[in-house]
Amino acid sequence: MMKQYFSSYKFQGDYLLRKIFSNEIKRALADYKSYTIVPIPLSEESLKKRKFNQVTGFLEDASISYQRLLEVQGKSKPTQSNKTRKERMQTKQFFQVANKEILPERILLVDDIYTTGATLLLARQVLYEKGVKTIKTFSLAR
């Protein structure tokens, strides 16, 4: 069911599906009020193709504020969905901090799907390198 949901939401552009998990997301993130919510960004290429970021879409529908502290280096990032687990874990760093001089001490990274954790690992790595003290993660599905 989740595979079909994400296929329709992300790849077929059914943006209204973001509403399905709104209440669950609000409840799940309620314990993180002292954290800065940071969505995993899309590359320019993916954003142009999809016309929306699926993560910010469900955050906005749940009325959860967030900051865009990360960006993808270059116009595209490697597509994780077509890779094996081994290939995902060997992906080179493609995130960078988006023009912020002072970062918050506590961040909750939010992604849509946790498969191998490679994307969140890379995002955490770049934030830790910039001095963030505590980083937690949340994914809608695994």
Automatic annotation (TrEMBL):
It comes from the Bacteria. Residues 88-140 form the Phosphoribosyltransferase domain. InterPro entries: ComF/GntX_DNA_util-trans, PRTase-like, PRTase_dom. SUPFAM superfamilies: PRTase-like (SSF53271). Signal peptide: none annotated. Belongs to the ComF/GntX family. This is Phosphoribosyltransferase domain-containing protein. It comes from Streptococcus sobrinus W1703. The lineage of its organism: Bacteria, Bacillati, Bacillota, Bacilli, Lactobacillales.
